[in-house]
């Protein structure tokens, strides 16, 4: 009797359509400035080719303009409820507090039988592990096989220089060009590890969720010399940026120079840099974009060689953008478009291809992948599924998407609608409104003038949409308890 029952169950399982594999490609600090996004001066042939296979989101916005908080929001699909959720320590539970029961995206897939593998920087650490070796995202991964290679430890990979050299705070260069092979840098080795792991996963009958987190174009801008040779600095476009006029007394652009303080150069916010310097910075950044594009291409080519596109959802996502002169800044820690907008391309079997102007949030990835793969999603996820549009149906109406940030002790709520960006900054002492920003994103240069004082009712209406969309309380990063908004 038991044998008959097992046979029947086996036949039913065989008749059921297999769940699709998932490959999530995360890229650090990548602006939506690629060939497929209309920047024909940037060499990104592999990502451009992949974009033709999927649906490219022109207006995708991250939750936070910093690595750890942004990735935590994407992987958990939840709005911030604790002070740490606003920081690069978003995956850590403060001492004395109980861990929150947040099911992560890979954990949801692991629970239904997927083999889940993490390579590189997917969460905030560079191999998925805390310093003590424990997983940064508990319950998420079956395997975290990142090999630190010549750099000795994964924590050195993000800031790795050629052939195992490590960053020395305040002494190492901001950029490096070496006449070496791709595998002389961490991303080159990571690409080969990803190809090898993909071959192993594809040889099994079990569905898999493979996440690969590439490091470039994160600082330092270090890449093999041939990628630098793709560009002539004098031919690169520049922007004549400056902080917006009529700013309130609080704005993150006043604290955004800190990203260069670990290198042998003064912070950009403390110096006047000219057109020549901006072009040097763009040259370095684009060289790293072309380098990481080539590494991503190795993985994409293997996906095609193994015929995995037929039953695999492939996502390319970046945790945030990067200022290259916009608002007169070099960095990422702001509430402006350059920081909060990033690339997103989703390619799924039988799904719609092309480009869309639909507003999308990093919070949407969790429910989207679950719906596409028919995996049960946790309740109360912050985002909405994009699966209907991927199936070719009209996208559901959406008022806007929410983002968050903290500059010093001040925190900000950000609402990006189709036409507007509204920002409210809070006073850290009494939680009152410190200042409000409003930008008309339909203008050719939308973030040069803060018009909140001219249109206070419009600003309040837009921020009201933020609170309606986010519903429950959102933690203040300066207090241990939640606050009303």
Q: Can you put this structure into words, describing what you see?
A:
The chain is an alpha/beta fold. The chain has a single domain (19-399), classed as 3-Layer(aba) Sandwich (Alkaline Phosphatase, subunit A), CATH 3.40.720.10. It contains eleven helices and 17 strands. The strands form five sheets. Strands 3-5-1-7-10-2-11 form a seven-stranded mixed beta sheet, sandwiched between helices. α2 (45-53) packs across α7 and α5 (186-202) packs parallel to α7 (275-305). The radius of gyration is 22 Å and the shape is globular. It starts with a helix and ends with a strand. Mean pLDDT is 90; it is low at 1-15 and 475-485.
Count of alpha/pi helices: 11
Low-confidence stretches: 1-15, 475-485
Over the alpha carbons, how many angstroms does the gyration radius reach? 22 Å
Average pLDDT, all residues: 90
- Strand tally is 17
Order of helices and strands: HEHEHHEEHEEHHEEEHEEHHEEEEHEE
Q: According to CATH, what is the class?
A: Alpha Beta
Give the CATH architecture.
3-Layer(aba) Sandwich
Q: In order across it, which strands form the biggest sheet? A: 3-5-1-7-10-2-11
Helix/strand class:
alpha/beta
Classify the beta-strand content into a percent band. Answer: 15-25%
**Envelope shape:** globular
Distance between the termini: 62 Å
CATH topology: Alkaline Phosphatase, subunit A
């Amino acid at each position: 009797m038991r044998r008959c029952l097992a046979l029947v169950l086996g036949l039913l399982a065989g008749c059921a359509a297999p769940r699709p594999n998932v490959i999530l490609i995360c890229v650090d600090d990548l602006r939506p400035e690629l060939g497929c996004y209309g920047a024909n001066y940037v060499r990104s042939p592999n990502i451009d080719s992949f974009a033709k296979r999927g649906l490219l989101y022109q207006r995708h916005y991250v939750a936070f303009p910093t690595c750890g908080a942004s990735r935590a929001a994407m992987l958990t699909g939840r709005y911030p409820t604790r002070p740490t959720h606003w920081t690069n320590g978003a995956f850590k539970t403060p001492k004395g507090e109980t861990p929150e029961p947040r099911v992560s995206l890979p954990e949801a897939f692991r629970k239904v039988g997927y083999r889940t593998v993490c390579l590189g920087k997917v969460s905030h650490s560079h191999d998925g592990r805390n310093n003590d070796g424990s997983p940064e995202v508990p319950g998420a991964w079956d395997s975290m096989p990142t090999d630190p290679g010549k750099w000795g430890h994964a924590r050195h990979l993000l800031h790795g220089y050629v052939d195992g050299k490590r960053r020395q705070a305040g002494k190492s260069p901001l950029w490096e060009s070496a006449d070496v092979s791709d595998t002389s840098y961490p991303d080159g080795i990571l690409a080969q590890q990803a190809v090898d792991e993909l071959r192993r996963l594809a040889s099994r009958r079990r569905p898999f969720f493979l996440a690969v987190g590439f490091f470039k174009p994160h600082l330092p801008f270090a890449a093999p010399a041939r990628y630098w040779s793709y560009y002539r600095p004098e031919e690169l476009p520049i922007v004549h940026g400056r902080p917006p006029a009529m700013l309130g007394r609080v704005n993150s652009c006043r604290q955004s120079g800190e990203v260069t303080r670990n290198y042998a150069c003064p912070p950009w916010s403390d110096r006047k840099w000219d057109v020549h310097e901006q072009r040097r910075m763009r040259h370095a950044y684009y060289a790293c974009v072309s380098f990481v594009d080539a590494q991503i291409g190795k993985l994409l080519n293997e996906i095609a060689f193994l015929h995995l596109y037929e039953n695999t959802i492939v996502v390319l996502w970046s945790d945030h953008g990067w200022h290259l002169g916009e608002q007169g800044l070099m960095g990422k820690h702001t509430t402006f478009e350059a920081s909060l907008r990033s690339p997103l391309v989703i390619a799924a079997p039988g799904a719609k291809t092309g480009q869309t102007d639909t507003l999308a949030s990093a919070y949407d990835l969790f429910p989207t992948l679950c719906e596409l793969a028919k995996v049960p999603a946790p309740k109360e996820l912050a985002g909405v599924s994009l699966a209907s549009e991927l199936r070719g149906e009209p996208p559901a109406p959406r008022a806007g998407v929410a983002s968050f940030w903290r500059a010093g002790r001040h925190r900000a709520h950000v609402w990006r609608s189709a036409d507007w960006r509204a920002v409210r900054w809070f006073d850290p002492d009494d939680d009152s409104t410190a200042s409000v920003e409003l930008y008309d994103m339909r203008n050719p240069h939308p973030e040069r003038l803060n018009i909140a004082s001219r249109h206070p009712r419009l600003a309040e209406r837009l921020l009201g949409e933020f609170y309606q969309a986010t519903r429950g309380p959102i933690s203040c990063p300066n207090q241990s308890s939640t606050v009303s908004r």
